[in-house]
Every structure is written in C-alpha cells, then in structure tokens.
Sequence to fold (698 residues):
Amino acid sequence: MSLTAVLKTANSGLVASQVGLRAVSDNIANVNTAGYVRKTVDQQQMVVGGRGMGVEVSGVKRVTDQYLQLASLSSASEAGRWEAVAQYMDNAQSLFGDPSGDSFFFGRLDDIWSAFAATANDPSSSLLRSQALSTVEDFLNEGARINNSLQDLFRTVDTKITADIDRANDLLDQINKLNADISRAKMVNADASGSENIQSQLVDELSGLINVQVSARPTGGLMIRSTEGVMLAGDGAAVLAYSRTDSTKGYITAVTTAGSGVSKPITITGGELRGLLDLRDDKLPGLSDQLGEFMTRASDAINAAHNGATTVPAQATLTGRYTGLDLPTAVSGFSGATTVAIVDSAGQLTRRVDIDFDAGTMSVDGGPAAAFTPASFLADLNTSLGATGSATFTNGALSISAATGGVAVDEGTSQKAGRGFSHFFGLNDIIRSDGVTNYDSGLSLTDAHGFTPGDQMVLRLAQPDGKPIRDVTVTVPAGATMADLVNALNSNTTGVGLYGQYSLDANGALAFTGSEPFYATASVVQDNTSRGVGGPSISELFGLGVTERTSRANRLAVASSFIANPMKIGLAKLDLSMAPGQPVLTPGDGRGALALANAGDVVTRFSAAGSLGKVDMTLSRYASEFGGSVGREAAAADTRRDSARAVQTEAMNRRQAVEGVNLDEELVRMTTYQQAFNASARMIQAAKELFDVLTNIV
Fold:
C-alpha cells in the first residue's frame, strides 16, 4: 500500500470520527429537548480494487421505531378525542346543578308538587296559588336557561372546530414544505435530522387534532393520508374545510392538489375534531332534545291534571291551544267519553253535553243520543249547547264559552294520543307554548295529512359520523292520507327508502330509522311544506330535525292569564254524581289540587331522546333517569379520557425509550469515536514519519 493510500484511509477515519462526534455532541446537547430524536451515523467500508481504503459516512439518521411512532400517533388521536368530549360534557353536566344541593334542576319538580299540595289545604288562598305558579315558572325558566347554555356550548364547539381546521391546514402546509428540505438533504447525504424532528413534532400535533395515516416518502419526508387514503400532505398540501349548517350534521372535506379543486368528504375517527363533531352533532343536541322531552312531558302532566280540574266558579271561556290540525282531523281518532258542562255562579248544572266518541253520539242533559261525525262535530256541539253556550274553532284552536256562568269539562274516559279531550285541545292549560312541543300528533295512516300537494322538503341522509350520503327532495303527494305521505317519504327514488324508513306510531309520532349497511341519519335541510294556510310544516308538526327538537325547551311558559289572575287555577273537580238541583262545583274542593300534586306519579309515555329510548314511566322516575344519564355520560367521557391518557403515556414512554438520548450510551459512543479519531491521527503521524525517513535517505 502506498503512503497516499495510507493517508487517504486515515483521513477517512478522521472524517468519520468527526461526524460521529458531532452526532454524539448534538445528542448530549439535546438530552432534555422535547421532540428531539437521537442520531446515529451510518458508516460503510470503502473498497477499491478489492482492497480496503478506509471508511465513508453514508448518512446521519434518526433512531426511530415505526410501530411505536404509529402507536403514539393513534393514542394521541384517541386522547385528543376524549379530552374534548370530557371537557364539554363536564361543562354540560354542571348546568343542571349539584344533585346534593338545592339548586339541582330536577329537584324543582318536587317543589311544584309540594306547592300544589299546599293549595289543596286552602284552595281559596291567592298567595298559595301564586307560590305554586312561581314554582312552575322557576322550573320553566331554569330549563330555558340550561337549554340556552347548551346552545352556547354548541356554538363554542362550532367555533373550536373551525379553529382546529385552520390549525390542521397550517400543520399540513408546514409538513409538506419540510418534505422539500428533507429531500434536498437526502440527495447530497446531508444531515436532515433537524427538519425531520420538526416534521415529527408537527405530525404529533396533527394527530391530536385528526387521525391520519403516516408513511415515508421514497425521496425523504412523510406522506399524510386520511383514514380512507386521501392524500393530505406529501407532494402538495390539501386544504381542509368544515361544512355545516345549523340543521345538519357537520363534516370535513379536503381539496387535494391532485383533485382539480373538487372537495371530497373525508372520514374522521379520532382526534380532537372527532370529539368536537360528536359533541356538536350528537351529545349536546341529544341533551337538549332530552331536556325538551322532559320539560314537554312535565308540562303535559301538569296540563293533564289541570284540564281535569276547574275553578269555582267556573271560567266563562275555555280557549284551547294551537293544535296544528283542522277540527275534523283533530276529533277523529278519539275513544271513550267526555262531558262538557255549563255551570251557573252557584255551581249548579245548567246544561250537560255527554260526548261518546266510541258511539259517535252526543246527548243533552241525559236525553236521547244524536249522532255526529268529525266533520259535523262543531255544529252538533253548538246545537247541543243551545242558548247556554257556544263553541268555535279558529286558527287551529278550539274554544268553548258559556252564555252565563262558566264552562267545565269532565275528561271522563276520553283518549287520543294519550290525552283526554280537554287536554288534547288544551282548553285549560296552565303551560302554553308558541309552537308544537309534543310530537304525538294523534294522526293515523288513514287520516288526511292536510299538507299542500306539491310543497317540498329537502332531507339529508348522512352516515352516523356526519359524512353525507345524499340529499333527497320529497314532494307532498296528491294522495290525501298520511299513508300517502309516509310512502312519499319512503320512496326509493325521491325519498329515503334506500337508506331507511319513516314510520308513524299509534300516537301519531313520525320517526326515521336507518337501515343496513349505512344506518343513516336524516336531517332537514329545508322545509317549505305547510299544513293548510299558515299551518305547521312537516318538520314542525312531527319534530323532524335537530332545529325543531332542540328549541322546544325554550317555547314553554305559564299562560299570561294565570299570572295576571292566579285564581284562575282550577283546584276543584266536577261532581256529576250530584242529584239534580245540587251544586256540581263547591268552594273549598281541593281534589283538582291533589291531582296536580300527584301528577309526577302518573305513568307517562316518553319518546326516545338523547341517551334514553322510548319508555313508559312516571315523571319523577324519568327525572331521576335523566339526571343519572347526564352524570353517566360525563363520567363515561372522563373514564375514556383517563384510559386514553394512560395508553398515550405508555406509548410515548416506550417511544422515548427508543428515540430518546441515553447519556451512558452516548458516553460509550463518544469514547469509541475519540479512540477511532486518535487511531486515525496516529496512522497519519506514522505515515509522516515514514515519509521523512524516505526523504532523508534520498
């Protein structure tokens, strides 16, 4: 071997040792730097003409483990998701108050029952009546406050999603730009670990926002894809966008550099964005819907008891609520019997009209029964009342008045959609609403649907995670019955039939059920339908869509007439068993007040809402179930968050054990490189001495 070859060999050793020492120095200097991945030097033997000619540095690489990287990214996505859910569910739970404190929302029902029980002891007390009304008002106002706060949370989550999308776009852009830097360094065998460390930290942050698939680019750097494989970063950064409306589920779209500017919905199964979308589209609307269902049924229970009661003396006029139906349709479908009574100021009966819905007859003062039909009901009722009173039906509301004295109704056995005659029409409701809150319409498949043919509504079918399937435009059919309308909704071509079915239950509630394999959900994009002139739309009457169902808790209020005059609260009941000439209403009768006090113990039908399905139970039991479900949802989110945190911590610890700097190992490497450097230097010194000897000989 020539001296030149010796010098070249020794020099390569010096260079390799210096590169190794620099790598070790960087590792030691960054031992406590977050996100730093230790470096090692790749060396290989140089062979020329079959002989060793020293060593060359083929590159400096980061010490990583692909499995542990993917595990940490996956755990970060899961932790990010449940962090968001737990945070906002804790906020939502706090709105209902402390279960052990006086401010607990569900405890206000007990205050209502106690207040009405007190009125039974002294029905003539205006103070006790006012106090009872105040407890009802407090309950309704507190429910509206909670619902408003839930809507505020909804808007906060919406804003947070938008902010996260902006941050994700920024991260994707930075990751993509770093790919160019890394590729250039790889081409010349330069150290790209600095850029790779920064890129790795950006990917870690991105995985906390949205779950992604990460793979290496052949030329250096990373490729980022969505769950279904849409390229988000690699050779160009995609732009994410948040698509949403107040009435539909939100979803994320991506415009890729290779997609000609076309936005494509992407699937998100993890990360903070998944948690926020779950909150926005399911959990918070579910709580609001469940609150509305609870308050509606509580109001119904109070109204049911009050419609079976009356004041002493009786009110001159009973005016019903807006039913959203025409009178023939509203009357059809009733079963059982009810009695409309005209009572004078002394409480004596002046006219009694017995209505038998099963037989379809009316009788006056126990006389012969005369037939009526739903179409002739109003005219026949007026005929039966004669000169003692009158009935009108205007703008969807029934009203019955007495010429002198007052009107009282005995509900009897009458029943439609779980409500008696007076209750169904709301003739004596304490609590009123400015729209439909009870979606048990009472309609059957054979009833006229009443909606204007040709009117249209647009429904959006989406996957459970919010990713849209398609929009369908449903046209109100020329067919007149509810069966025709349901068939139009379920059409395979212009309806939802390919993805699910709408069904009408025995109480006239319309609901959608998704079918395999998508288990789609349906939301209302637009509804231009109307039942009659100025009547409710399909979505308003049946409570279709999140907008309708989440706003009903704010629609309930104590009727202004009761606030103005608490003596209008009915605390007595008709006693139709009294002998002729005896009063059927007596002062001091508190049976109506007792019925109001016991309204919470009456078994009530609750529709599916939030986390609770369709059930039949007492109002007090449902309050306990509802309160418990709110706590369980928050506790479950906390548990999932803690579990996700534990998995993330373990994954990060294992990853750090591989990627982190170990000072003992680095000391060994430093000693090795120092010795190699010294050996190469000694080899150069020996070559110099040999050269000097040869020179002196010459």
